[in-house]
Amino acid sequence: MTLIKSISGIRGTIGGEVSENLTPIDAVKFASAYGAWIKKQRNKSDYKVVVGRDARISGEMIQNLVMNTLVGMGIHVVDLGLSTTPTVEVAVPMEHADGGIILTASHNPKEWNALKLLNAKGEFLNGEEGAKILKLAESTDLLFADVDSLGNITKNDAYIDIHIDEVLALDLVNVDAIEKANFKVVVDGVNSTGGIAIPLLLERLGVEAVKLYCEPNGHFPHNPEPLKEHLTDLSQAVVKEHADFGIVVDPDVDRLAFMDENGDMFGEEYTLVACADYVLSKTPGNTVSNMSSTRALRDITEHHGGNYEASAVGEVNVVELMKKNNAVIGGEGNGGIIYPELHYGRDALVGVALFLSLLAEKKMNVSTLRASYPNYFMSKKKIALTPGLDVDAILKTMEAKYSHEKVTTIDGVKIDLSDSWVHLRKSNTEPIIRVYTEASTQENADTLADKIIEEINSVSGVK
Predict the structure, then answer these.
(1) Count of CB atoms within 10 A of residue 46's CB?
(2) pLDDT tens digits for 89-118?
(3) Is the pLDDT of residue 28 over 90?
(4) I need a surface site. Which of 341, 375, 389, 453 has the fewest CB within 10 A?
(5) PROSITE patterns of this UniProt entry (predicted)?
């Protein structure tokens, strides 16, 4: 079906033909290339890589292939087993490791899996580093270890608890206020590792957690992307349980969305807005999100006297700009919170703790909090790619068509209109063109998206 090699890692569907899907041979090939890249970073006697996975059905198979490939290259492995993406990111520097691999396809359906690759800081590789690994994957000169130099595997299942310890130790996480608030929350863990980590975090914070789909068996009960149309069960449970709000994460727990006490979406774009509002109120500074994220973060940042800038889509791009601008918080509008006080990676656990601290201190319900923020509406649509579709030519045509507007081309084509915007880009994780729009009403956002899609179809010949 599909194998995608990008800045977001090596992602594909399980089974099928070699080099066309994520088969065992492909998993070994890319793990070998990553191991060779690790060894090129520093010349030393012992190398170590941290490996963890979400609860996908294929996860154990892929993880065993990856770990034993690294062992065959003479690299020691710390096996976290079932874990989360941010937990592996936290573990890498704690283990003084040379890198890390997370086996997860994030929000993709169960037939997908992926190798997400980290450097020695526990951060995603940049484009240049990723290109080197892709080149190594096609090489026949990879060197494996002799029998006396094989690596070993050490299991460590404590890191989710350690990760939670680190979150609770943050100065801005107001544990006392959260405990006194007596919150009740419904958690949708989409039957992956969020069903382990989020309830454990809530328990430590004195929050009553009602578990929904928190069995980490990899059988996703709904589309795992945390969007409104996939979350009717959570909405009903929040109302039925008279909960203060609902929490949903994606399978590897780096995306976070909330549902208010009425069972209505808080808006995944507003996860970052709310957490930034809290952080900026305590530590004024700058923020960064990607170009497909809501303008509301800019408004909140400027309200607190800070400076907002937008990066290209992709966590590594957000992190790079955050470091450059000394941002105190940042992330992506898909519910990804990056709080540098802990680490430079999207982290739903940090997001939950900051959001709870905000609610506890403001002493207001979630719907009232949402109403206090600038109101923008987004439409997120897509166009499936076909073999004959020339995406670059389409984007060039759209850029020329809207040249009289403010157009940015660092990542696809972003067109800023006076009261709205549209962002067109080829996805890093799926064979699609993403069409994101934002406007003052949902109807206007949807109408703008449909208009752009119609224009793209007319220039591409797609019906």
Answers:
(1) 9
(2) 999 999 999 999 999 999 899 999 999 999
(3) yes
(4) 375
(5) PGM_PMM
